[in-house]
Design brief:
With 341 residues, the protein is of the alpha/beta class. The chain has nine helices and 17 strands.
């Protein structure tokens, strides 16, 4: 641990290379810049980030909902991240999350209520006030008022623009091999870093993007499901992201028929107008996960790895970036998430 501390102290005013311009690397570069650390962001893909998991994410900021089964560190960091989203992107939609269930799944909703925090029970009338499109469709639900969501394909360019305003160079089409890099670096490559992180694995997630003018939602709506935490997230222009499966597989050749049916059926049972929606995309990506599904910041000499964000990339990235920046700039440690070698 001491050697790593000394290595970063010796780095002094050297430029820190952050590898990976997805949500994790972008927030890490932003937090380092805010802390006064010279930094450059490197990305092997182009600005569209077609190969990045971030492109296919739901973008939900829901630490309360995730407290059903997630490690406590995920909830703590998630709550801090919402503060950072609010500070850096004040237009972030922080309108809460709504969880509903059909009568046959009421037991699952009650269990979910017992195992989560930060919510209140809502009845049919309040559900109608929160989401008029769902009026008369559900008798009871849970409302998590302190949550929100972002549109990944919109906020990443916004964050990149903020970095450029700060004078942080973003080098697209620039793959960097951490083993060959001479200076200090932060590796945020996700699953691409697996050769250096043998415990890391990919967990397949599948989503559907649909469009309809017949439904209006203001916030993410989760529908209780016996296998997956299914959700419908509103996007601008009458679009909705429906997600997401969680499958122990690394086959990303396409979305399975079973998953597509379950995702689309969930939307249809939420509101029958989704039956006439247009399917714009069926997408799949691999989420980088450690065995405990908790994130890790690994420090080895002058190199730091941030990985294992699993399903929580947009929820965790700001706070993890802040942890890295606090350590690099001031030597502060977060022992719950940081590891040394």
């Amino acid at each position: 641990m001491r050697n790593s501390d000394e290595a970063w102290a010796r780095a002094g005013s050297q430029e820190v290379a952050v590898i990976g311009a997805g949500i994790c690397g972008t927030w890490t570069a932003l937090m380092l810049s805010e802390a006064g650390v010279p930094v450059a962001l490197h990305e092997r893909d182009g600005p569209d980030l077609m190969g990045s998991t971030s492109r296919w994410a739901g973008g939900m900021l829901a630490p309360g909902c995730e407290s059903d089964g997630a490690e406590p560190v995920v909830i703590r960091l998630g709550r801090r991240s919402i503060d950072l989203w609010r500070r850096h992107l004040p237009e972030t939609a922080l309108l809460g999350s709504l969880v509903v269930s059909h009568p046959r799944d009421r037991g699952d909703l009650d269990r979910f209520a017992r195992q989560t925090s930060g919510h209140r029970q809502v009845g049919e009338s309040e559900i109608a006030e929160l989401e008029p499109a769902l009026a008369g469709r559900f008798r009871t639900g849970l409302f998590f008022p302190d949550e929100g969501h972002v549109e990944p394909r919109a906020v990443l360019p916004a964050l990149h623009a903020e970095l450029q305003r700060r004078g942080v160079p973003i080098r697209f089409g620039a793959a960097v091999d951490p083993a060959a890099a001479a200076g200090p670096l932060v590796d945020c490559r996700g699953l691409s870093a697996r050769a250096d992180l043998p415990e890391l694995r990919g967990v397949k997630g599948e989503t559907a993007l649909v469009a309809t003018d017949e439904v209006t939602l203001r916030r993410p709506v989760r529908l209780m499901h016996p296998r997956w935490p299914l959700y419908v997230v509103p996007r601008p222009g009458g679009r909705f992201l429906i997600g997401a499966s969680t499958i122990e597989s690394e086959d990303v050749s396409g979305v399975s028929v079973r998953s597509a049916l379950e995702l689309l059926t969930a939307a249809y049972t939420l509101h029958p107008a989704f039956g006439e929606a247009r399917i714009l995309e069926l997408g799949t990506a691999l989420r980088p996960a450690y065995p405990d599904h908790a994130p890790r910041i690994a420090v080895s000499g002058s190199k730091i790895s941030v990985n294992g964000l699993y399903r929580h990339g947009f929820l965790l990235a700001p706070a993890l970036g802040e942890v890295v920046a606090n350590y690099v700039a001031s030597g502060l440690r977060d022992n719950e998430v940081m590891r040394w070698s």
